[in-house]
Amino acid sequence: MMLKNGFSLVSGLFLLAFATGCASLVEVTAIEQFSKAIENEDLKSLKHHTTMKFSKVALRDKTSMDDLKILKIPTGETTIVEITDISENHKKVVAEVGKNKKKLLYELKRVTKTGEWVVDDIYIKQKQRNLTVMKSVTEQMDLLLTIREFVAAWETGNRDDILGTTEGEFKKYLEQLQPAFLAKLSQKVAGDSKSSKSRRPDAQLDKNIAIVRLPRRSGEMVISMKLKDGKWKATDVAVESRVDGQHIASAKKQANMLLTVSNFLDAYNQNDKEKLKESSADQFFRGSLDFADLKLAALPQSHDAAVDYDLRIENNLANFVTQNNGKMINLSLIKIESDEIDVPEKYLVEEVTLFQDQGNQQVTLTSLFSSRAITLVFSEALSKRDMKILDFSSTPDFSSRVWKQVEPQLVTQLPLDEFTEPGFEILDIQFNGAITKVFARQGNLPVTYILREHLGQLLVDDIQLDLKGRPSSVKATLEMLVQVQNYAFSMHEQNIRNLQRHSSRDFNELVWRQVDQVPQTAYNIPKLMMSKLNSLEINENEGYSRIQLGNERQGATVLFKKQQGQYVVDDIMIHSDTMASNYLSTKKELRMSMAANAGTLKQNAVQATFTISGQTKPETPATTQPVFVPEIQPAAFEIPQQEP
């Protein structure tokens, strides 16, 4: 009985050992067949000894053997360390493989039809950032093969293949790009790559995200990948290049910029200002494009611009440079970032620059469109004597020297007769950096508007007008004439303080500092000073100016002297055919009046009051043309004595 029981125990142990040995033999056989296929680079045999899932994912391309080499999966003698039965047809096996006895975790599955055990996946321990992690060969192979497919798609430039390798915002921007832009971008990204066999990607995986570095001849490509629905897709790609002009910090951002450029050019050429507004910076659109006649400046069609372009990016700014009929065009873009996390950044066109004359002359669309608009507005304001518009559309220098100096009561009498002729027409525009010249015709008179950029806006800085006997600068002419009119108005208003402020030291010492009111003379001096301009001479070197008003029969010549950087009245020569000499110094005449009333001027001098109106009083002597003479009507003062 004991013998029988002993025999039964020995038999049971033998059978258990035999069964365990057979089990280990099954696993070892499956693993060694897999390893042998890798060593022999036998893709057909490898597919036979792996599951359908592994083959479809990790062995789906003829280059799969190259990528398996990259993973450096150990092969050789196999020793089973541990076996875990997950189910009847599923095992997890820990084995030591190769000379270094590297531990690998194999997942084995039994093929239902043949009963053969094959490899379903392998997990290899890897160290990343001081951490030891288990990486699936299937997952790594899927990523490596996806990278090769990505590169192949971008090298061939096939639109559907490119879109198939991307995901998220990257794909959204690429989908909306015109084919010409996408094709050009794909060429820039693919570049001059190494042959497929020599490319060995360096991939860093972290859960569902991977950063892959792939060598190029002049640098490397960096692809950002994301695992979505079991498939790796590119969310961006960068190109680090040692060659100038080939560096791409982010293809996604470039696609976004190119999309803005494409939409802008399409809307511009279709004259669709609603869509143009969507891709333009607010100040650029409102200050230029909104009111512009877009036909005045031709821009290339988007598909033509995509043929040959250069995109230069620096921080939040970018410049898209292309050619149109042999002329270079630059679209400046600015990045607009939202405060909301979920809202992606966008780019808007903030200016377009046209380069002409082989790049020696450049003009912005803002200058081109606003120069016409501001010139038309300014011309109309001149004819209407609209001081508010004139001040708003002038440079600070023009405004401070002329428009801000005009007395409100004298606005209607501003000497702007040349600009009230009907028929204003712009003939040509010339751009030179911050200065723009607008050549026009006012009636039959040629005029040139000088526009200057100030704080991003074009403003009128001067008008050039070629008339005999006066400077070509309308600004300089008006500056002197406004001073003359203001001086006449101060005399008319008995404003001694203003007269002192705008008179020379000599004039003040002889007259204005000694009186409380304008001495009464035999001549209506304000009336004569309001006469029409005959000639104007300004000598900056000598520091004097002479303005002749009216004519020799009736008028005045105002003499200015420069003191402390400003022109002030030094004397007023009266013209009158009632005098023996025809000329009389106002300083002398006022001194004579003061002498005749010595001791009574400050207390008892008779105050002269005048009313200046804008009426026209034509005088047509036989030898002269009609002269505009504002009428000065005496009121409540004695009739002046006639000169003996």
Description:
Keywords: Signal. This is Lipoprotein. Residues 1-23 form the signal peptide. The protein is 35% helix and 31% strand. It is α+β, with helices and mostly antiparallel strands and 644 residues long. The chain has five domains: 21-128, Nuclear Transport Factor 2, Chain: A (Roll), CATH 3.10.450; 140-249, Nuclear Transport Factor 2, Chain: A (Roll), CATH 3.10.450; 254-359; 367-466, Roll (Nuclear Transport Factor 2, Chain: A); 475-635, Nuclear Transport Factor 2, Chain: A. It has a five-stranded antiparallel sheet with strand order 1-2-3-4-5. A hairpin with a 4-residue loop joins strand 2 (90-97) and strand 3 (102-110). Residues 1-23 and 604-644 have low confidence and may be disordered.
In short:
By secondary structure, the protein is α+β, with helices and mostly antiparallel strands. The chain is built from 21 helices and 25 strands.
Share of helical residues: 25-40%
How far apart the termini lie comes to 175 Å
Shape type: rod-shaped
**Spans of at least 5 consecutive residues with low confidence:** 1-23, 604-644
Helix segment tally: 21
What is the tally of beta strands? 25
Question: Any key phrases for this structure?
Answer:
644 residues; alpha+beta; Nuclear Transport Factor 2, Chain: A; 5 domains; 5-stranded antiparallel beta sheet; 25 strands; 31% strand; disordered N terminus; disordered C terminus
Map the helices and strands.
Elements (H helix, E strand, L loop, with lengths): L1 H38 L3 H6 L3 H7 L5 H8 L6 E10 L2 E8 L4 E9 L6 E12 L2 E6 H20 L2 H6 L3 H9 L2 H12 L11 E5 L2 E8 L2 E10 L2 E11 L9 H19 L3 H6 L3 H8 L12 H4 L3 E6 L2 E8 L2 E10 L9 E11 L4 E4 H20 L2 H6 L3 H6 L22 E9 L2 E8 L2 E10 L2 E9 L8 H19 L3 H6 L3 H6 L14 H5 L3 E7 L4 E7 L3 E10 L2 E11 L6 E3 H11 L4 H4 L4 E4 L19 E4 L9
Antiparallel strand pairs: 1-2, 2-3, 3-4, 4-5, 6-7, 7-8, 8-9, 10-11, 11-12, 12-13, 13-14, 15-16, 16-17, 17-18, 19-20, 20-21, 21-22, 22-23, 24-25
Helix pairs in contact: 4-5, 5-8, 7-9, 8-9, 11-13
